Amino acid sequence: MIQHQRAVRVAALVAALLLATTGCSGTGGKKAEQAAGRLGAGVADTPRMKVAMVTHAPAGDTFWDLIRKGAQAAADKDNVELRYSAAEQAGDQANLVEQALAEGVDGIALTLAKPDAMKAAVAKAEAAGVPVVAFNAGLDNWKDLGVLEYFGQDESLAGRTAGQRLASEGAKKVLCVIHEQGHVALEARCAGVKQGMPGGSVENLNVTGTDMPSVRSAITGKLTQDPGIDRVITLGAPFALAAVRSVKDAGGRAGVVTFDTNKALVAAVKSGDVRWAIDQQPYLQGYLAVDSLWLYKSNGNVLGGGQTVLTGPSFIDRENIAKISKFAIQGTR
Amino acid sequence: MTQTRVAGPPAVADERIEHVAPLRRLLVRPEAGSLLGAVLIFAFFFVMADSFRKPESLANVLYFSSTIGIMAVAVALLMIGGEFDLSAGVAVTTASLVAAMLAYQFTLNVWVGALVSLVVALAIGFLNGYLVVRTGIPSFLITLGTFLMLQGLNLAVTKLLTGAVATDDISDMAGFGSAKRIFASEWDIGRVSVKITVLWWIVTVVFATWLLMRTRVGNWIFAAGGNADSARAVGVPVTRVKIGLFMGVAFLAWFTGMHLLFSFNTVQSGEGVGKEFLYIIAAVIGGVLLTGGYGTAVGSAIGALIFGMTYSGIILAGWNPDWFKFFLGIMLLLATVMNAWVRNYAARR
Q1: A174 sits in which H/E element
Q2: What pLDDT digit, counting tens, does each position of A123-173 carry?
Q3: Residue A278's beta-bridge partner residues?
Q4: Which SS3 state, helix, strand or coil, does residue A188 take?
Q5: Domain boundaries, given as residue ranges, for chain B
Q6: pLDDT tens track for A200-251
Q7: Taking 70 as the threshold, does the pLDDT of residue A39 lie above it?
Q8: Based on CB atoms within 10 Å of each CB, which residue in A302, B161, B197, B274 is the most buried?
Q9: Would you tell me the crossing angle of helices B324-348 and B297-316 to the nearest 10 degrees?
Q10: Which of A209, A262, A236, A24 is nearest to B162 (CA)?
Q11: Does the bond joining A313 to the residue before it have cis omega, within 30 degrees of 0?
Q12: pLDDT of res. A36
């Protein structure tokens, strides 16, 4: 029995050693990743201030992660203590804003995905003399709510820009993939694409964004049903990568383009699998939201002078991908 | 044995060996209703949607069904054994996250990541099972707890290790090619792309059917799900059976997770939420009782196929996408009603 146990132990040790010596990958992985330099640039000597960022972001979304990274970079630089929180339901989001006010923050940066629900909370902040800036969502409503500044992209303008580019490339029939059914901004993008290419047709497809095999299978199905589709436009980077596989499955010739980017997508643009992406610079949105509050607090400046500060749309394609991919590998684009 | 039969009282036929008409014998099977439902839905979309008839559409339906079906087999077995697992959907994501992050962060061969991930997955399954049998709390509540815990862990640990919310691309790492061949390879037959998951799905169903129908363990599963106390009284190791069933779910969750990882190269930490219900739905449509003790593995496969056909069929028919979920609901409702109707009809006859 003891002998048996010893044999097991020796075998386990040998197996562990084998794994340790032969189990390494010679390619890729963390080792291949460049030591990512943080965008650090010293710290401002202004008094420490507290800023709350309250968004409607779903947990674990690559796009929102970039916004948060930008916000953190600005906070580090401006000697700001950043309190980040998020709730998908508008009512919960409003509660988070009131909570932040009760905590005594010096400024609030928020998204206005559902402006009406946030009205009361924003008014409360105003009454308490706490500056509020908005970003990412709420382009049409931020002025009415009395918010100081706005940083973001006009979704329907971005859609139109995408549509115009598709039309200029000769696309006739476009499939617009909505990964969250009933999401206002996503619907606005697809509607914008339609406006941008009056000569062609645009069809929407609703998919379940949290289930990749079903996304892949749904797009494949649609391409099989209508082989005339010559472009697939997705509204988030991970879905573009799934669409690339769908096009291959359906044996089609449709090109894939997308809104928004992440690390893997930049590689796909580089290899040509995805033709281009519309970039709204989420990192910049987060950065500006925090930085603007610091500017306002320490010097009374208002970015954009009362007008919307647009962070997009711009294109990422083969022409400029080399410049951007360096930052994407760092995880900041 | 040498006794000669003499005319005695008229033989009362034992109901167990009574002759049963073949049709009825088919109809009383647990999966009969769903089989009829599947045939009807197939016929419906075959008529309604031109593109449904294309072979590549069939391959697509089978692929999507298989990604649900593999898990549905294990979930069906677990439900026959009288338990639920709400953590099954996110456990799939957990498995792929563990494998991807371990391999990437330590620059290991991806197979090492996959094997460690298997150990982690089985440990989660064991924990689920152990807690259920030790505490006696309904598995619905225990696995609701692990479901939420895993959902949080998926996000928090991914963020901690990678600094982002999705894993890094591991497609250029050692071992990726061979792993992809096993978990996610595809063959082009003409214009049709056939995925290996369909093959694994069939293997899983056949194995589970053999386990249920031809082995002692199969009897134990039915007994444990039918009435755990009586089963224990006649010597069925209920504790081991239930823990084993949870670990079976965990194993196939790992397998599905590996497919996800090796076919998409990266995994987002928020994926998988809500899929646990698809597995349960597939099993229930296929005739598994929510109360346990009754059902088949083949039924779960038919259930997954119904879901896959409906999902793709609606798209292939080109119906207004805004109504998609509504149509999906109607189709599934019809399939379940059909199921109940056939069962009642067969029981009355």
Answers
A1: strand A173-178
A2: 999 999 999 999 998 888 899 999 999 999 888 889 999 999 999 999 999
A3: A259, A315
A4: helix
A5: 37-337
A6: 999 999 998 888 899 999 999 999 889 999 999 999 988 999 999 999 888 8
A7: no
A8: B197
A9: 140
A10: A262
A11: yes
A12: 39
> What is B37-337's CATH topology?
ABC transporter involved in vitamin B12 uptake, BtuC (1.10.3470)
Interface of B with A in 297-326 (CB under 8 A): 308, 311-312, 315-318, 321-322, 324-325
A206/B322 touch (CB, cutoff 8 Å), yes or no:
yes
B295 neighbors B286 (Cβ within 8 angstroms): yes
Average pLDDT estimate for B191-206? 92
Question: Which residues make Cβ contacts (< 8 Å) with residue B300, sequence separation at least 6?
Answer: B69, B72, B73, B75, B76, B205, B282, B283, B286, B288
| Residue B255 sits at the chain A interface (C-beta within 8 Å) | no
Instruction: Give the helix ranges, DSSP H, for A26-149.
Output: 29-32, 62-77, 90-103, 115-127
More confident residue, B316 or B71: B71
* Domains, chain A, with CATH or none: 49-153+282-301 (3.40.50.2300), 155-279 (3.40.50.2300)
What's the pLDDT at A147? Answer: 93
* Distance in angstroms (rounded) separating the CA atoms of residues A288 and A264: 25
Which residues in A lie closer than 8 A to residue B54 (C-beta atoms)? 224
Backbone angles phi, psi at B302, to 5 degrees: -65, -40
Q: Does B107 contact A25 at a Cβ distance shorter than 8 Å?
A: yes
Helices (H), chain B: 22-27, 32-48, 55-80, 88-105, 110-135, 139-162, 176-184, 196-214, 216-226, 228-233, 238-264, 275-285, 297-316, 324-348
ipTM of the complex: 0.73
Distance between CA atoms of residues B280 and B283, nearest Å: 5
